[in-house]
Specification:
single chain, 101 residues, mainly alpha, 3 helices, 78% helix, 0% strand, elongated
Length: 101
């Protein structure tokens, strides 16, 4: 069994912060997509009683999916950002430093 460790780098921090802010905006702020919690509650008032209670019961699951989905996307995109951008910039900086000295 492989020992999988989680490494935190600058790309993951940046991407995860961006995706958590997007998740925050989707959940708490009113927007044109009508995906906020208050918009879902308002829409559930038009349903029958059983459907209304079912929809309200699914809201915590929806919030969990949005938050953990943002975390997974942030880690994945941050890893790509780290591999393709940050490491290349570091290698170019090291190369430029070696050429000058």
């Amino acid at each position: 069994m492989k020992n999988k460790t989680f490494s935190l780098n600058l790309g993951k921090i940046i991407a995860t912060s961006i995706f958590f802010y997007i998740a925050y905006c989707l959940l708490l702020r009113e927007n044109d997509l009508h995906l906020s919690v208050s918009a879902l509650i308002e829409r559930s008032h038009q349903l029958t009683l059983n459907q209304h209670l079912f929809a309200l019961g699914l809201i915590p699951i929806y919030i969990g999916f949005v938050i953990f989905g943002a975390a997974m996307l942030g880690i994945y995109c941050g890893d790509l950002l780290h591999k393709h951008v940050i490491l290349r910039l570091k290698s170019k900086a090291k190369l430029a430093f070696k050429i000058k000295h």
